[in-house]
Amino acid sequence: MDKLRELKLEDEGAFRAWLAAWQDEPVQVSVTQPIQTSFPEFLQQLHQNSVDPKPPRVPATKYFYIDEGIIKGGISCRWALNAYLRNFGGHIGYGIVPAYRKRGIASEMLREALEKFHQRHIKRVLITAEVKNVASQKTICRAGGVYENTVTDPETGEALRRYWITLEKNSQCE
Questions:
Q1: Would you tell me which of 48, 81, 93, 174 could form a disulfide with 85, CB atoms 3.0–4.6 Å apart?
Q2: Nearest to residue 3, comparing CAs of 11, 28, 29?
Q3: Are 127 and 111 spatial neighbours (Cβ–Cβ below 8 Å)?
């Protein structure tokens, strides 16, 4: 059974626990804000954002790492880049619930997400990490990330390291 998947109606309790797990965390990651609609409407919004988002958003699918009924991590896969994402946000954003960090979950999520990009024939994936987030930088490098440069996000003032991962497979190895 895949641990990385989109949310289902029966995940509402686990999702609300996920939101609560981030309350004391100073860093906000995608989908950690309280939802302003019913859970079914929220799921519909996530689906809509994955196929036909309102500009300036780009199509993006949110996957969650669910193990034994607990959401331990989440990852956003942005299938295209707008100007902001090209410079600061990248194709992928992820976060691990503080209680489940340092267990390899980020590496596993990133590996599975990169396979989803490969299946969509996206050959290069941009990922950024805050300069102060050394653990994320190591995860990205282990996944094949090649450092390009460091930029400052004008919205947050955070310095971000930008990495590219090339997904082209060696045809001799397949």
A1: 81
A2: 11
A3: no
Q: Is the pLDDT of residue 170 over 70?
A: no
Q: What is the pTM of this model?
A: 0.90
Which distant-in-sequence residues (6+ apart) come within 8 Å of 145 by Cβ? 127, 163, 164, 165
Checking 94-101 for CB contacts under 8 A at 24+ apart, the result is 94/29, 94/136, 95/22, 95/27, 95/29, 95/30, 95/32, 96/65, 96/72, 97/18, 97/21, 97/22, 97/71, 97/72, 97/73, 98/21, 98/22, 98/24, 98/25, 99/21, 100/72, 100/73, 101/135
Q: Write the pLDDT tens digit of every residue in 22-58.
A: 887 755 555 555 567 889 998 999 999 999 998 889 9
Give CA–CA dist 4/128, Å, rounded. 21
pLDDT in tens, 81-92: 999 999 999 999
- Which class for 72: exposed (0-12), middle (13-18), buried (19 or more C-beta within 10 A)? buried
Instruction: Determine how many CB atoms are found less than 10 A away from the CB of residue 13.
Output: 11
Q: How many Å is the maximal CA-CA distance in the chain? A: 50
Q: Which one-letter amino acid corresponds to residue 18?
A: W
3.30.230.70, 3.40.630.30, 3.30.565.10, 3.40.50.300: CATH of 4-166: 3.40.630.30
